[in-house]
Design goal:
Strand content of chain C: 25-35%
Helix content of chain C: 10-25%
Strand order of the largest sheet of chain C: 4-1-5
Order of helices and strands of chain A: HHHHHHHHH
Number of domains of chain C: 1
Structural class of chain C: alpha+beta
Number of strands of chain A: 0
Oligomer: heterotrimer
Largest interface: B-C, 20 and 22 residues
Largest sheet of chain A: none
Distance between the termini of chain A: 67 Å
Structural class of chain A: mainly alpha
Order of helices and strands of chain C: EHEEEHE
Radius of gyration of chain A: 18 Å
Number of helices of chain C: 2
Number of strands of chain C: 5
CATH topology of chain C: Alpha-Beta Plaits
Number of domains of chain A: 1
CATH architecture of chain C: 2-Layer Sandwich
Chains: A mainly alpha, B alpha/beta, C alpha+beta
Chain lengths: 185, 417, 73
């Protein structure tokens, strides 16, 4: 039973991280105002939202299984308050921080129409902090964290997100950037 | 430079000033004593919601540009209170932010007859049972307004708020935004200010000249007000005349002939090519037999807007003048609404090309196409006002457009010739 | 009953989601901002929404990244 929980905890953590990577990439595409090939803009927005919710679900599975696991013995305080854990408190604490940030980003995302654009946007920026923290947690804390295949996956993700971020900061990022710029010059 | 009509008013406390010199009847830089001597005391205690009926009879329209029936505005603000018990008390704002560079009649009014504006504000406030009163104006008029408020006890609760010197700072929702502590930028127009304006309270924004007329109607009645002007445009209005000779403010009867007003201002009509009526959001007209009134057939009347009359002399190029104004207006966009932010500079560029002698025959069509993209697609009137100016220029200066496109304009700096 | 889809221009950034969801109602201008295809009385700010488009309009309101749309009776 314990080994099953342990395995579930690891796998769900990895799946959640992979999904968060995709979510961040889709979020950046979404922000650009551009559609993907054969995927209209509103679908990009919906996929971005749905994958993020799935990632949250897997993350809850990750946390839940490790709370039940007799070896990890994660308690409720560790889930929300970082750096107090008994095992690798720093690396586990990063996971807690990422979880707290994700909860804030997801809740404000779901309540966007009530909170208003300003609050939503301010909190949504934390996604950019959440992702690298989650990645660091997976490498530092994960059983497979330093294995070659995982590091390769992590490196690939960093390249993808880094590339997307560089694009995000480029002057032609917005779909209409060029034509709008020309109108004003 | 200000010039007020020289004839001395015949004033009586019971009859009110006769002739067209109404708003400046107390003279220059009128103190409270001058003001009361000229107009008599304000029957403020007699004013209640029934005054709205008097306002309706008077036929007064807004003098800030839109010429909306003043009684309707007042009534809409007062009415909301009957519906819900918990509705908060209204706010009344005297709007003295002209924004328009060619308009100076509101500044002049606040400098020389501030007590008349304060009277109007108090009357409007009483008729809608308002609890908050503001005067919103630019720095130049603030000392005069503050001094006037300090002179009288009934005006203590009036707050004076400084308006920035931007073109759109006087737009009603921008006024509310600015007084509410934000920037003087227009808001989305989905909600009416009369329902939900400053801090969600019913808000009445009236131009300072409009309020001055309100003050006189409260004293002398609707019939007196209607004794000047015409049935379709009763009362008097202030106009800011510029372009030829010294800038001046005149008070003229409603429905007055444009040529008569210019001649009255001492302008030699033979040197006039066209007149910009209503300011940068107004329209060019020629010849001069138009009548200045907000209502009437389009071919014979022209809406005075905020009362700006700017003369273009025969030697000047109307297209060049318009191109310059449109470039200015594009720069005065609040930078909130996309079609205005990008559409106005695009239109300014095309118009500047035509004015500058570019002979591409497609330019006029492109200007018209851009116009359809700008029309009615903004939170405020700025894009539509700009569009109206451009359309009137293309119409009135159509010969010049042809001359520019063939390189034959003789009026401009010689660049196309 | 027809409804009105109101565009708050002070918020709109022309991201184009609404124009994809309501292609018959909204086009895009040179800069990407929505254009009401059949404006009623020249009103370029409030698009008329028929019963067939009601659901798409509600989706557009929900998905607008700038919360710039309001559906009114």
């Amino acid at each position: 039973m314990d080994s099953a929980l342990w395995a579930l905890g690891r796998v769900s953590g990895i799946v959640s991280l992979a999904m968060l990577t995709v979510t961040v990439l889709l979020g950046i595409v979404n922000r650009s105002g551009r559609p993907l090939p054969a995927v209209p803009r509103f679908s990009v927005a919906l996929i971005h939202r749905n994958i993020s919710l799935l990632a949250t679900l897997f993350l809850l599975m990750h946390i839940g299984s490790l709370m039940l696991d007799s070896y990890a013995k994660l308690n409720l305080v560790d889930v929300f308050v970082p750096f107090l854990g008994s095992f690798k408190p720093f690396w586990q604490g990063l996971g807690t921080v990422a979880f707290d940030l994700l909860v804030a980003v997801v809740l404000t995302g779901l309540l966007r129409h009530r909170l208003g654009q300003r609050t939503f946007r301010a909190v949504h920026w934390f996604a950019y902090a959440m992702w690298p923290i989650a990645l660091a947690h997976s490498i530092g804390n994960g059983t497979n964290g330093t294995e070659r295949w995982f590091l390769a996956l992590a490196a690939g993700s960093v390249v993808a997100v880094g590339g997307a971020l560089a694009w995000r900061l480029s002057s032609n990022f917005l779909e209409n950037a060029k034509i709008r710029q020309r109108s004003l010059s | 430079m200000t010039h007020m009509t020289s004839q001395m008013p015949v004033t009586s406390q019971h009859l009110g000033p006769s002739g067209n010199n109404r708003l400046f009847a107390a003279g220059s830089n009128a103190t409270l004593a001058d003001h009361e001597r000229a107009y008599g005391p304000l029957p403020e205690h007699c004013i209640d919601a029934t005054f709205i009926g008097v306002l309706e009879q008077s036929g007064l329209t807004g003098r800030g540009g839109a010429a909306f029936a003043s009684w309707r505005k007042v009534s809409a603000t007062g009415q909301g209170r009957d519906g819900a018990l918990l509705r908060s008390r209204p706010v009344v704002i005297a709007n003295g932010a002209e924004g328009e560079p060619l308009s100076f009649k509101d500044k002049t009014l606040l400098l020389h007859a501030p007590h008349l504006v304060l009277d109007g504000l108090l009357v409007a406030a009483r008729s809608v049972s308002a609890s908050s009163l503001y005067v919103y104006t630019t720095a130049v008029a603030m000392p005069a307004v503050e001094a006037a408020i300090a002179e009288r006890r009934d005006a203590r609760r009036i707050q004076v708020i400084e308006a920035p010197e931007t073109f759109i700072s006087g737009q009603a929702s921008a006024v509310v935004n600015a007084i509410g502590g934000g920037n003087a930028l227009p808001l989305d127009n989905r909600r009416r200010l009369s329902d939900s304006g400053l801090k969600g309270r019913p808000t009445l924004v009236l131009n300072v000249e409009t309020l001055s007329h309100v003050a006189l109607i409260a004293r002398y009645g609707a019939q007196w007000f209607r004794s000047a002007g015409s049935d379709r445009d009763p009362g008097t209005r202030l106009v800011s005349v510029s372009g030829r000779g010294a800038d001046q403010v005149l008070e003229v009867a409603g429905d007055e002939g444009l040529g008569f007003v210019l001649a009255h201002a001492g302008i030699d009509l033979s040197g006039v090519q066209a007149v910009l009526v209503g300011g940068y959001h107004g329209r060019w007209v020629k010849p001069l037999d138009y009548r200045l009134t907000p209502s009437g057939p389009a071919g014979q009347t022209v809406r005075p807007g905020a009362g700006v009359l700017h003369v273009l002399s025969t030697g000047q190029c109307g297209l060049e003048a318009t191109a310059w104004i449109v470039e200015y207006l594009a720069g005065q966009s609040a930078r909130q609404c996309g079609p205005c932010v990008f559409g106005l500079p695009a239109m300014a560029k095309v118009l500047a090309a035509i004015a500058g002698g570019d002979r591409n025959p497609k330019l006029v069509g492109e200007l018209e196409r851009l116009g359809t993209l700008v029309a009615r697609r903004g939170a405020c009137h700025h894009p539509d006002g700009t569009l109206q100016l451009i359309q009137s220029a293309l119409e009135i200066f159509s010969e010049d457009v042809g001359a520019h496109l063939t390189g034959n304009c003789t009026r401009m700096g010689g660049r196309a010739a | 009953m027809n409804k009105k889809l109101h565009i708050d221009w002070t918020r709109c950034d022309g991201r184009g989601l609404c124009t994809e969801l309501l292609p018959a109602v909204l086009g895009r201008d040179d800069w990407g901002y929505p254009v009401v295809r059949h404006p009623r009385n020249g009103d370029g700010t409030n698009a008329t929404i028929g019963p067939d488009e009601a659901q798409a309009a509600r989706d557009a309101v929900k998905l607008c990244p700038k919360l710039a749309l309001v559906l009114q009776a």
